């Protein structure tokens, strides 16, 4: 068996750009993003899907990129924190809110927090309930992002510095 048996070219779109990295079948999306594509915003925290530092969006849904095999992403769209901002150098509204609210200290978790917040906002707008959503709420209707909803939806992203109050305020700023 040749070495090519364990590598495949994977066509995907990353931050709006068509890419075709050749990946080892054991490589995670996080490793391909950081090591092959030079996108170092997503961080390797726990490498077990427990901290959320590696959160990115795949087809608009938030994922822990340390758990997702890159070879499984053929034809998918990946957005990292580097790809959130519109062209022209402006920050994404959540990135701006994080800066304005000082919603970080060391900043290690910030890219994952921001990507997770983008996904959480989209989920709420699409009417996806969380554990704290009122059971009497209309099924499929947009969910209001109260402080409790924001905290619940972002609970998979850990901030060792404890910047949670400012993170919640930043998300509130964008959703109001």
Automatic annotation (TrEMBL):
<keyword id="KW-0408">Iron</keyword>
<comment type="pathway">
    <text>Alkaloid degradation; nicotine degradation.</text>
</comment>
<dbReference type="InterPro" id="IPR036010">
    <property type="entry name" value="2Fe-2S_ferredoxin-like_sf"/>
</dbReference>
<keyword id="KW-0001">2Fe-2S</keyword>
<dbReference type="Pfam" id="PF00111">
    <property type="entry name" value="Fer2"/>
</dbReference>
<protein>
    <submittedName>
        <fullName>2Fe-2S iron-sulfur cluster binding domain-containing protein</fullName>
    </submittedName>
</protein>
<dbReference type="GO" id="GO:0051537">
    <property type="term" value="F:2 iron, 2 sulfur cluster binding"/>
</dbReference>
<keyword id="KW-0411">Iron-sulfur</keyword>
<dbReference type="InterPro" id="IPR001041">
    <property type="entry name" value="2Fe-2S_ferredoxin-type"/>
</dbReference>
<dbReference type="InterPro" id="IPR036884">
    <property type="entry name" value="2Fe-2S-bd_dom_sf"/>
</dbReference>
<dbReference type="InterPro" id="IPR052914">
    <property type="entry name" value="Aldehyde_Oxdr_Iron-Sulfur"/>
</dbReference>
<feature type="domain" description="2Fe-2S ferredoxin-type">
    <location>
        <begin position="8"/>
        <end position="84"/>
    </location>
</feature>
<dbReference type="InterPro" id="IPR002888">
    <property type="entry name" value="2Fe-2S-bd"/>
</dbReference>
<dbReference type="GO" id="GO:0046872">
    <property type="term" value="F:metal ion binding"/>
</dbReference>
<dbReference type="Pfam" id="PF01799">
    <property type="entry name" value="Fer2_2"/>
</dbReference>
<dbReference type="InterPro" id="IPR006058">
    <property type="entry name" value="2Fe2S_fd_BS"/>
</dbReference>
<keyword id="KW-0560">Oxidoreductase</keyword>
<dbReference type="GO" id="GO:0016903">
    <property type="term" value="F:oxidoreductase activity, acting on the aldehyde or oxo group of donors"/>
</dbReference>
<keyword id="KW-0479">Metal-binding</keyword>
<dbReference type="InterPro" id="IPR012675">
    <property type="entry name" value="Beta-grasp_dom_sf"/>
</dbReference>
């Amino acid at each position: 068996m040749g070495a090519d048996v364990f590598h495949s070219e994977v066509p995907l779109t990353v931050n709006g750009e068509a890419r075709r990295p050749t990946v080892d079948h054991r490589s995670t999306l996080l490793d391909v993003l950081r090591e092959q594509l030079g996108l170092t915003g997503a961080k390797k925290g726990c490498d077990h899907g427990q901290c959320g530092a590696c959160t990115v969006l795949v087809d608009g849904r938030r994922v822990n990129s340390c758990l997702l095999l890159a070879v499984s992403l053929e034809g998918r769209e990946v957005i990292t924190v580097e790809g959130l901002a519109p062209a022209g150098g402006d920050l994404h509204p959540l990135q701006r809110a994080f800066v304005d609210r000082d919603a970080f200290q060391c900043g290690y978790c910030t890219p994952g927090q921001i990507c997770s917040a983008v996904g959480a906002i989209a989920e709420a707008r699409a009417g996806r309930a969380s554990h704290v959503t009122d059971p009497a709420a209309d099924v499929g209707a947009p969910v209001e992002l109260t402080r409790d909803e924001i905290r619940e939806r972002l609970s998979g992203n850990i901030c060792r510095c404890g910047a949670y109050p400012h993170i919640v305020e930043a998300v509130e700023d964008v959703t109001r």
